[in-house]
Design a protein that fits this description.
single chain; about 170 residues; alpha+beta; 4-stranded mixed β-sheet; 6 helices
């Protein structure tokens, strides 16, 4: 018995139209781009990993989405916290659609204007926990977020992750 859909030419129209629909959907997806400050910050952070003989962190659009959202939320609420609105870093990464095997996060805030990005990296490298996050050989991808509120305060978030199913480097 042939299903009724295949008895009419409609199935052929649907089959031929599906690549066009998929191509149109792909065009609607925003292209991932880093801001100039994000590019500079990632370069500086990866220089620290290179000094430690570790592979550079690869930028991942979903991790950038999570980090940018968190930086904006911290700026909006004027709170520098890893847990905000009851959500931890892993929950934010998951909400962004990233299938994680390991997640960690560094955050910072600049109160008096805009310090050079080198100062943010220096502060993270001088903090035991932040340094460990940055130099963790079990992570391979990252996302960054930088947001300013109406008072001029700047909030920074960096998410580190390794996709689920990928074995960590030894």
């Amino acid at each position: 018995m042939i299903p009724s859909l295949f008895r009419s030419p409609l199935w052929l129209v649907l089959l031929l139209a599906s690549p066009v629909v998929l191509a149109e959907e792909a065009k609607k997806s925003p292209k991932f781009e880093m801001t100039k400050d994000e590019q500079t910050l990632l370069k500086l952070l990866n220089e620290e990993r290179t000094k430690a003989h570790l592979p550079v962190l690869k930028p991942h659009p979903l991790l950038f989405k999570a980090a940018r959202t968190h930086a904006k939320n911290m700026a909006k609420q004027r709170k520098m916290e890893h847990v905000l609105d009851g959500k931890k870093p892993a929950q934010r990464v998951e909400a962004a659609g990233y299938n994680w095997g390991k997640v960690s996060e560094n955050i910072a805030m600049a109160e008096d204007g805009e310090p050079p990005l080198t100062a943010i990296v220096k502060d993270w490298m001088e903090s035991k926990t932040h340094r460990e996050n940055l130099l963790d050989k079990k992570v391979s991808e990252t996302g960054l977020g930088i947001a300013r509120n109406d008072k001029g305060e700047i909030y920074y978030a960096q998410v580190f992750a390794r996709p689920r199913g990928i074995k960590p480097q030894k």
